[in-house]
Each structure stands twice: as structure tokens, then as C-alpha cells.
Amino acid sequence: MAKFRCKRCNYSFSMEVKVTPKVCPNCGNTNCIEREKSASELLDEMQE
Ligand SMILES: [Zn+2]
After folding, report:
1. CA 1 / ligand 1 centre spacing (Å)
2. 10: domain range?
3. pLDDT attached to residue 48
4. Contact 18/34 with Cβ under 8 angstroms?
5. What is the model's pTM?
6. Residues lining ligand 1 (ion), CB within 5 A?
7. DSSP string over 1-34
8. 8 falls in which pLDDT band (50, 70, 90)?
9. Please, are residues 39 and 3 in contact by the beta-carbon 8 Å criterion?
10. CA 41 to centroid of ligand 1, rounded, Å
11. By CB atoms within 10 Å of each CB, which of 3, 7, 9, 45 scores lowest?
């Protein structure tokens, strides 16, 4: 499960997808979705 957040309306949601969705399900804007890193991913980055 990946978490995403819309930079326009600040709506956050989770989706079972491998790629970042292009359209915000809340406000409908495109190219405003940002992937939120999970805690384990952040830990992985610090260890590298
Ligand atoms: Zn939005």
C-alpha cells in the first residue's frame, strides 16, 4: 500500500498501486500528487 498526498488540496489517500496517480481523487487536479514515504522507507534511506 502506498500513500499519496495532493499538493493542491492537501488530501491524503492510500492506494494499492505501483505508480503515482496523475489525478487527485478529491479535487481532480493533475500533476499535483506526491508520494509519501513510509516510515520503513525513511529508515532505509538513512541507512544508505
Ligand atoms: Zn487534490
Report:
1. 19
2. 2-47
3. 73
4. no
5. 0.73
6. 6, 8-9, 11, 24, 26-27
7. -EEEEETTT--EEEE--SS--SB-TTT--BS-EE
8. very high
9. no
10. 24
11. 45
